[in-house]
Amino acid sequence: MRYRSDKVSIADFGGVGDGKTLNTKAFREAIFRIQHLRRRGGTLLYVPPGVYLTESFNLTSHMTLYLARGAIIRATQVSLNIFSIPAFPITITSPRGAIIRATQDTWNWPLVAPLPSYGRGRERPGGRYMSFIHGDGLRDVVITGENGTIDGQGGIWWNMWRQGTLQFTRPNLVEFMNSRGIIISNVVFRNSPFWNIHPVYCSNVVIRYVTIVAPSDSPNTDGIDPDSSSNVCIEDSFISTGDDLVAVKSGWDEYGIAYGRPSSHITIRRVTGSSPFAGIAVGSEASGGVENVLAENIVLYNSGIGVNIKTNIGRGGFIRNITVTQVFMENVRTGIKITGNTGDHPDNRFNPNALPYVKGITLKNIWGVRVQQAGSIQGLKNAPFTGICLSRINLHGMAGPRSPPWKCSDVSGAATEVSPWPCAELTGTQQSGSCASHF
């Protein structure tokens, strides 16, 4: 991690950590100073213990945002309906460190353009609300500290989604676009309005030693979503949210196909957590392609699906060379799911002939207890999934070693030492073809 010889405190710019004072001006002035003074080696912005209520703000290159133990950066809460809400802070105390807290004035939450690989907001047509902490076109940025907290106060956003009153797509908690050399470590992320950490069109990203938490019923609060990004390492973290813990993406239908930027060389290791959806996911928005993904040493519990590789007609793109190994799961609805019929479409202009190409999926050394359904692998009739390799997999049912049989269609590959035994489409213990080197 880069050492910054130049250091400033948010208090130097009028920041007050009382949980009531609005600190937007302090954060923006501090970052403006870092951007324009351009100290050799960059500058560290120190956030001392306290609760710092603020609206969204942009980071800049060559800076470290450092949250002390007991510091909280908290997003202001917003109300995007015509009726206003009282402007009072909602405090969530973290025993581990600082918190950054969002403000409650919804009218001041800026809008940004839709991502070109999505063509519109992920939830609603048109633009999207800017992430709470945002960076575009940056280099050499670190978010770290002593397990301080970045708190999105997402409850009101979740309720607007449930009530159907959102005008635009909800904001992520942290998003980097078109950036490289990003490190995020030793921070707690809490109650994101939407996805928690979203590196998109980025390279050379390290996310480690983070804690990401949100209620299990919070909608679409994915933990970490590397999206059309390369050379990403996610490790040594705990995630418990309302949607996929880690989901690798690369754009949506015709927009992702046209943008054509894959996600590649993604490493996920030593991640623990729970989710009503998937622990480790690829897709379903993978129209730019996903390749060379390694997930290992994963522990999942009380989850919907352990490993979920998902795409759909109209996605196009490819999913290839995916390896998931050394996984333990407990109390999971479905252990392994690979499917070609998941996910919606941005509009009706998608090409039904744009079929995804799925090949070279290796799943090995996976153990599960209290797994209701061992697995399901269902490809597409005109685009079968090939090179599906299963090895040393034991997924035990709710009442002992027996579990419902696998469901398979339009798939080919091989399996060895799998219990319960998978579908006939996988060629037994035959170690031939593209699977031989993976067993």
Overall average residue pLDDT: 91
Assembly annotation: single chain
**How many β-strand stretches?**
29
Number of helices in the DSSP assignment: 3
CATH architecture call: 3 Solenoid
CATH superfamily: Single-stranded right-handed beta-helix, Pectin lyase-like
Q: What is the CA–CA distance across the termini?
A: 37 Å
Task: Provide the helix percentage.
Answer: under 10%
**Beta-strand fraction estimate:** over 45%
Radius of gyration: 22 Å
At the first level of CATH, what is the class? Mainly Beta
The total number of structural domains is 1
Q: Structural class, from helix and strand content?
A: mainly beta
Question: Quick one: biggest sheet?
Answer: 23 strands, parallel
Choose one word for the global shape: globular
Provide the CATH topology.
Pectate Lyase C-like
Poorly predicted runs of 5 or more residues: 81-97, 99-107
Protein name: Pectin lyase-like superfamily protein
Keywords: Glycosidase, Hydrolase
Pfam family, one: Glyco_hydro_28
Family: Belongs to the glycosyl hydrolase 28 family.
Question: What does this 3D model show about the protein?
Answer:
This protein has 439 residues and is mainly beta. The protein has one domain: 3 Solenoid (Pectate Lyase C-like), CATH 2.160.20. The chain is 7% helix and 46% strand. The protein has three helices and 29 strands. The protein has helices at residues 24-37, 155-163, 253-259, and strands at residues 6-9, 18-22, 43-47, 50-54, 57-58, 63-67, 71-76, 99-103, 111-112, 128-129, 133-136, 139-145, 148-151, 174-177, 180-185, 187-190, 197-200, 203-208, 211-213, 230-240, 246-248, 263-274, 278-282, 290-310, 318-339, 357-378, 385-395, 407-409, 411-419. It has a 23-stranded parallel beta sheet that branches. The protein has a four-stranded parallel beta sheet with strand order 5-11-14-17. Strands 9-10 form a two-stranded antiparallel sheet. The chain is globular.
